[in-house]
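Exercise 3.2. Students should predict the tertiary structure of the chain below and write it as structure tokens, then compare their answer with the key that follows.

Predict this chain's 3D structure.
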Amino acid sequence: MGNRHRGETAVEIGGQRYTLVYTINAICEMETLAKRPLSLIGQEAALGYVTAMRWMVWGGLRRHHPVSVEEAGDLLDALVGEVGTAAAGAVLQSALQAAFPSRDEGAAEADAPGKATAPVGGPTS
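Answer key:
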């Protein structure tokens, strides 16, 4: 199972468990490949653009399961075959949202005892 506190999402494809996580490096690689910002990739994937969905599979797998773009397409093909395009897109959107929790979701964790927080405006010297 993926660790949601680390932005990880577990997904089963073809009977095998994979972990999607959108790290900064993965996002940069996706944006370079797609030649567009992450926000547009996410919007295109939500609209059903399969190429954007493939970029999201590829980028999400980079940390734990490095695959080629073509292999990511094969995995997406299998996922779509198992759950359909809309559900596959929903899985990817959920995984992407896990990488960027809302302020409310992060607030409870940041307020936990022993948690260090940076002052608003960033660190000062």
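Discussion points: The chain has six helices and two strands. The beta strands are 8-13, 16-21.
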